[in-house]
Amino acid sequence: MATGAVGTPPDRRGQGARAGDTEFVRKLRWLMLGRALFAMLTLGAILVYRAGERLSFFVEPLTSLYVVAGFVFLVNLLYLATFRWFRHEEAFGGIQIFGDVLVVSAIAYLTGLLYSPFLFLYPIVIICGTIILGRMGGYFTAGVSCIAFGVLVNFQHYGMLAPPGFESSPFAQDFTGQVVFYRTSVLFLACLVTCLVSGYIAEQETRARADLAVMEEQVKRVEKMAIIGEMAAGLAHEIKNPLASLSGSIQMLKGEKGWEPHHEKLMGIAVRETARLSGLVTEFLLFARPGSGSPVPILVASVVEETVALLEQDARYGHHVGVEVLVVEGLTVRMDLGHLRQVMLNLLINAAEAVPDGGTVIVSGYRQNRNAVALSVKDDGVGIDPDIVKHIFDPFFTTKKEGTGLGLSIVHRLLEESGGGIQVVSCPGDGAEFLLSLPCDPGGPSPRELRDRC
């Protein structure tokens, strides 16, 4: 066994679903609704402006804006009509965002391009692209927007393209290379800042949703465990007393006269099975009512090494598994000593059962933050299927031929009572890692005193 420092825990990133009535689909629907409202508001604003200026219905650039607004509205109806047949929602969202960039570029061109009052639509499209496609999608949308606008401005600057009525506008006299560079740079900078800020916000939202999903799963598990725990407590109390009476009666019968040799085997079976039932009832009680125990400062490395030594003495596991301990010296937690030993023993047995002959289990520990200590139990076994990971801490859930399915449930319950937590990271064929968060002890006795206590 070796003792030393370890690295940081793996990063967790949640991934949202993309099927059915998911969050992504809801965002697409809001995007299409917003686009339809924009088209109607644009058309209404044009009509109000025309009436206020007493202009003809067919005067540029109003005529072209009618066409653009109508085109946006019709394309949006097409999106709505074909939405249910698209199997790849992300590709469908990307098509819409790319189309929005082209529409905004057309509106900017029809309304003066470099001097258009609608250039603010570019940052809005970038924000929509980030919301729909994520951070990288926002970068892509910003890049496409800058390229589209830059190409149009260059065409205008070199006389290859001119917005309707631009030659007769007062802006035509100030259309110099310096002005073009300045105004284009301002728009590009606005697009860059928009994609950076919106990308950061979108990433934080994704992480928050992932953390919320984890918390919801924990709440559901706690509620389920509370109900089953109360039931198990009542059942255990009803069984434990008869078991004690049964065991005592059998012992008394063994001492009676007239004892025959074949009775010894039968009584041995009865005593063994009674002991097994008593052990099961003890597990039920530990799961149902673990209690907070007596929290004291504990030297983590000492408890881990003690539990590893206990595992190595077990004939079932000690001969085929190697355990390496990488726990920072002097690392202390505050919880019940018996609870920590029970947690470590359950996790080490679970890891030992998962690895083949010659397998390795690594126990590492480090200071996670000011208030918590991180402890990891990692094996190089076959790993855990994702469908099983969802239920691995549920009481009475097991994939083993023998066992009650309470081992990991007890671990979860003991850590919860101590103010800690546990999660599992695993991929089939790549082993499993149980990550524990334990309450840190900020002060307390010296490491030597803790070692003597443990």
TrEMBL record:
SUPFAM superfamilies: ATPase domain of HSP90 chaperone/DNA topoisomerase II/histidine kinase (SSF55874), Homodimeric domain of signal transducing histidine kinase (SSF47384)
Cited SMART domains: HATPase_c, HisKA
TM ranges: 28-49, 61-79, 140-160, 180-202
Protein keywords: ATP-binding, Kinase, Membrane, Nucleotide-binding, Phosphoprotein, Transferase, Transmembrane, Transmembrane helix, Two-component regulatory system
Entry-linked Gene3D superfamilies: 1.10.287.130, Histidine kinase-like ATPase, C-terminal domain (3.30.565.10)
Protein EC: 2.7.13.3
PROSITE patterns linked: HIS_KIN
Signal peptide: none
GO molecular function, one term: phosphorelay sensor kinase activity
Domain Histidine kinase: 234-442
Catalytic reaction(s) noted: ATP + protein L-histidine = ADP + protein N-phospho-L-histidine
UniProt protein name: histidine kinase
Protein's organism: Desulfoluna butyratoxydans
